[in-house]
Amino acid sequence: MIDNAGTTIIPIQSGETNLIRVINAALNQPLFFTIANHKLTVVGADASYLKPFTTNILMLGPGQTTDVLITANQPPSRYYIAARAYQSAQNAPFDNTTTTAILQYHNSIKTKPIMPPLPAYNDTNVVTKFSRSFFSQRKVEVPTEIDENLFFTIGLGLNNCPKNFRKRRCQGPINGTRFTASMNNVSFTLPNNISILQAHYDRIPGVFTTDFPANPPVKFDYTGNVSRSLWQPTPGTKAYKLKFGSRVQIVLQDTSIITPENHPIHLHGYDFYIVAEGFGNFNPNKDTSKFNLVDPPMRNTVAVPVNGWAVIRFVADNPGAWIMHCHLDVHIGWGLATVLLVEDGVGELQSIEPPPLDLPLC
What we know:
By secondary structure, the chain is mainly β. It has three helices and 22 strands. A hairpin with a 2-residue loop joins strand 4 and strand 5. Belongs to the multicopper oxidase family. Its EC number is 1.10.3.2.
């Protein structure tokens, strides 16, 4: 239902408890979400159940989903449902408007809706409290022995502009530069004529390489004052090869190159457990003590904290070429991605299915 002003109306009866599936469909902006005067009981995220917890505020990165229960236990009236930006990147322009819908009780008087308070645009404390409330419903089978221990830096960078580019395509903070992004100093380039999966399956050479580094090529103070010599990544179509059934841990480390930022990192083809997150540089000698190996949440997108890190674990049991990338749409275009190439196992059930005969060519 839509009112005369074009605002969506969500009807509800007093005493009802309804399930709301919240999806951040914005391309380039994490969002806070709330409903005036109502508690939100989180029961799931990214299509996985969670141990329920109650909150006033959700924060979702682009592409993330959260399932909440809401009980109509307030006086019959009209209440704004509101969302606005969480902006962690300093000095970066963003849309600071607030989008709204209206939760309208049956038989309520048509008065001005009640507006909820929203966090400050850069309120990382609210985001941290929210993300650290996530747990699985029960003890889960998170890998405890690791075959592949990977460390991926993520962040922005700068490239020199080609001489034939117009100024509007060169909007870096330094004259003559344009933004780029990378993982482990490799700025991912999509192939032009054939997909990576097709090239892998048909053993077509020259489309990609399998030399994506397991660790940063150069170690540095990732969240400190980074040398300008590290601002320009190397372009490439590089994948990292995983054996079928390998138990994988990936540390995702934000960097302060150009600006630190909360990056929603999504992995195709898999759910994974988020076993820990924190701020600063990940320290394996200290931070492993923070790992939750009992009931960590299962998700397919992890919001890596601004100027911080997150650790995920999964079993590589789905063969194929799976892109891991930032869900900020502009960042994947700049190259903040890589491909995990999971090899076939034994037999038909552990192998990539052959393409259909009518598969369209790239």
